[in-house]
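Dear colleagues,

As part of the handover before I leave the project, I'm documenting each prediction I ran so the next person doesn't have to rerun anything. This entry is a single chain, and its sequence is reproduced below.
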Amino acid sequence: MSEESPVGRFLAKKGPGLHHVAYQVEDVAAALQQARDNGMRLIDETPRTGIRGTQVAFLHPATAGGVLTELVQPVEAH
């Protein structure tokens, strides 16, 4: 990872530690809608393409006790 990547900037600013947690879901759009319906604060309003072709969306850290949360739908689940 480069120092210009989101994780690189996080590490440069805060040092080693937890950046985020990721949860695998069958349908990231449905999981995102469920989070929205439950009043959770979102970073991504719609899924986007992540690494290796996955579909991802992030929940705001304020929603999960200060921890950035990623929802991940594997490629084979599309």
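The first strand starts at residue 20 and ends at 24. The mean pLDDT is 90.

All the best with the project,
I.
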